[in-house]
Amino acid sequence: MDTVIGTSRVRPDAAAKVRGETVYVADLPVHDALTAVLVRSPHRFARIRRLDTRRAAQLPGVVAIAHRDTVPDTPLDFGIKDQHLFPREYVRYAGEPVVAIAAETLEQARAAAAAVEIDYEPLPCVDNVEQALAPDAPLVHPDWETYEHGASRVLRGNICGQNRISRGDVDAALARAHVTVTSNFRFSAGIPGYIEPRAALARKEADGGLTVFCGSQSPYGNRDDLAAFFGLAPERVRFINQFVGGAFGGKILMAAEWYAAALALQCDRPVRLVFSRHEDGLNVFPRHGGIATFTSGAAADGTLLAMRASFVFDTGAYIGYGAGTGLIATMLASAPYRIANVDLQATLVYTNKQVAGPVRAPGGPQATWAKELHIDEIARRLDMDPLEMRLKNAWEDGDVSATGQTLRSVSVKEALRRAADAIGWQKTRAPGHGRGIACSWWFSSCSRSEARVEIRSDGSVHLHSGNPEVGTGSAAAALPIVVADRLGIDPSAVTLTLADTATKTYDSGVGGSGSTFSAGLAALQAAEAVRARLIERAEDLLEARREDIDLHRGKASVRGAPDHALSFAEIAAGSGGSISGSGTAPEIGDPEFDAESVESHDFASWLAPSFVASAAAVRVDAQTGRVEVQRIVTAQDVGHAVNPTGIIGQIEGGAVQGLGFGLTEELRFGEQGIENPGFQDYLMPTALDAPAIESIIIERPSGEGPLGMKGVGEPPVTTPAAAIGNAIRDAIGTVPYTTPMTPERVWRAACDASAQGPSEYSSRST
Which residues contact 745 (CB under 8 A, 6 or more apart)? Predict the structure, then answer.
């Protein structure tokens, strides 16, 4: 049997995408579809005093109108029931959907939207995290005390989340430290940055059920949420995922799907809702902005003795998926370092902004950027090489995390050394040039996933998986490789059906670096089942022992007698027309940890963790603050490289996304809400801005992942910004402690350092 695992393969969906043949939701040719638009709040915070759609409903072409009085009065549940599909008494951010309208044409729908009468009473807003925490701050949710919430969730005024990790005695350790450093940081919100705006098409079926065409990261989960909200059995709701034009965490939560469904259930016509780029920007689920403070103490030899860190994240008007950001941030705050005394806290607060979401590696770039700049400050204070200090304190096998998890397959030191060697760490730097390094860890996740593999009477191999393809190739490329490897065929021979809930192959979706991990386990199990049945049937037909049968290029043959063979088609035909097998990702519990070390923390140990380090080389013009990133190297432990081409793509994409977080991307908010909802003035790096990028794959197999793999997609976005920041400081002696590190901020940091010492978001040492 030829081995295909670990060999570079062309993505099976690449040619169709290059030729423009792939079909996205907005491209679907659906007869008689109505066009939908949304009426959005112009206010950041206001009471709805009156809502009247009667005049709009009488206009030509209008078929359906949905608002607070036409949908169930059921709050959405993300751990805190703080949000309704349409706002009932208050709008809490500019751009919040208040009314949805479906009409024959876009022009008619827009005319009806303009005719909707809404009387608002504007209210004082909460603009940022500092204001949210002020004793006299307005309440984003005046009725917060009435909300139901999970037992582990903290809800108090504008605070909607809190967690803590603590071990040892931080104060005592700081008191005996040779040096203590305090650093203050601010990070801006940022968008996921996918190319395809949100879109959905919904159709009510004759039996009262619903079909939704979408581009989601979690079609099964979305289906279940939508069915529960509208009181439908999940079996009567079908989600059909199309190709997804990028997601990066931004398409886990539903947006257009909700409103298209609410309208479609009112009429007997399909309803299509497609956001413009501007409108998508108003409905975006951005990366959390916020602030952080770190205080750490170290011995004279560089041993880290203690760390106290606190984050405050801006989760916007509703909790959404915000809790995960705070949980992950505290798990990253002291990692991957051996620190006996830690006190790590994160707080989530409401503001009158768009709901923040689980953008790729939620909390990862923010926490890693702050922590790694802080580590460099300590090294500089000790006059110690930053790489040497990291290597001195980095985890090794058998160490424990801040929460007491015993660590295995730890590769952080190898990642640091290889990234540093590749960037030329020890080489002499020219004036204005600098090198920086940063490291971190990340989790793999194993959620519910099912798969089915069929060999049909024509010999074709079909894989059904509920895992969606969101542009990364983790489903379209990796899953066929897993199946093909077990069946001895080329991956191109595997026909893939993804994320149609009618296939009844449930999958929890793309997120948490668990797509290939979970779906790969299910696909591997299904392929093993089919392989066993193929060989069992061939054993009878070929009159040979199963241990002597090989599967190769669509045939089962007897070892040593290659002509004594049967094709898959012949075996399937002799087995009633097809051979199939199903697989399910096994339930894998999280590793043990010390429950005494955590408060309100339900993500305190990480499955099959991976380790990553990035190094960057930059040139900085101190007179203008311009930063030229010349090179980024990322070394990442992937467990086992199932698809090296896909892994390199993820690492390179993470480097560019990290470049944007670090230097250019900033979602700005003003009196009217988001000021830059489109790509024309949101500075996202393109291929022309990308520096030279080197990807180094490290393989330390896990005991849990399919074929030893670990999660791949999120780690490489966490470290590049921190490496760039440390390289800036290496070049000019200072760095801004605010993201993005724009030329103005770099220039001001240089001026402050030379004129009057550190600014508010900077560092101080004792």
Answer: 625, 736, 738
pLDDT in tens, 339-371: 999 999 999 999 999 999 999 999 999 999 999
* Proportion of the chain in helix, strand, coil states, percent, rounded to 5: 30, 30, 40
What's the Cα-to-Cα distance from 165 to each of 345, 445, 594, rounded to whole Å? 6, 21, 10
C-alpha 660, offset from chain centre:
16
Please report the domains of the chain, with CATH numbers, ordered by start residue: 14-21+447-584 (3.30.365.10), 32-123+196-245+251-282 (3.90.1170.50), 364-445+604-765 (3.30.365.10)
The span from the CA of 726 to the CA of 639, in Å, is: 28
Quickly list DSSP for 325-347. HHHHHHHHTTTTB--SEEEEEEE
**pTM more than 0.70:** yes
66 contacts 263 by C-beta, under 8 angstroms: yes
Using CA atoms, how far apart are residues 350 and 347, in angstroms rounded to an integer?
Answer: 10
Confirm if 504 and 494 have CB atoms less than 8 A apart: no
Q: How many Å separate Cα 669 from the centre of its chain? A: 23
d(CA 385, CA 425) in angstroms, rounded, equals: 10
Note whether 154 and 261 are within 8 A (CB). no
Phi-psi region of 760 (alpha: psi -120 to 50; beta: other; left: phi over 0): alpha
Compute the C-alpha angle 515/516/521, nearest 5°. Answer: 110
Judge whether residue 335 has pLDDT over 80.
Answer: yes
| One-letter identity of residue 282 | L
Strand partners, 139: none
For every residue of 272-317, DSSP letters joined together read: EEE--HHHHHHT--PBPEEEEEEEEEE-TTS-EEEEEEEEEEEEET
Spatial contact of 322 and 288, defined as CB atoms under 8 Å apart: yes
Locate the DSSP E strands across 507-639: 549-552, 555-558, 561-567, 578-584, 598-599, 607-621, 626-637
Terminal alpha carbon distance of the chain: 64
Dist CA 146 CA 739 (whole Å): 36
b/e per residue, 389-423, with b = 16+ CB within 10 A?
A: bbbbbbbeeeebbbbbbebebbbbbbbbbbbbebb
DSSP letter at 664? T
Q: Which residues contact 116 (CB under 8 A, 6 or more apart)?
A: 39, 51, 52, 53, 55, 56, 99, 101
Query: Cα 286 to the chain's mean position, in Å?
Result: 11
The answer to whether the beta carbons of residues 81 and 75 sit under 8 Å apart is yes
Range with the poorest average pLDDT among 235-244, 276-285, 488-497, 755-764: 755-764
Whether the CB-CB separation of 741 and 663 falls below 8 Å is answered with yes
Instruction: Return the biggest CA–CA distance within the chain.
Output: 88
Using a CB cutoff of 8 Å and minimum separation of 24, what contacts does 155-159 make? 155/80, 158/126, 158/132, 158/133, 158/349, 158/350, 158/351, 159/132, 159/133, 159/347, 159/348, 159/349, 159/350
**CA angle 737-430-619, nearest 5°?**
40
Question: From the CB of residue 7, how many other CB atoms can be counted at a distance below 10 Å?
Answer: 15
Q: Which residues of 657-671 are buried (b: 16+ CB within 10 A; e: fewer)?
A: bbbbbbbbbbbebee
CA distance 156 to 158: 6
Per-residue model confidence as pLDDT tens digits over 599-657: 999 999 999 999 999 999 999 999 999 999 999 999 999 999 988 999 999 999 999 99
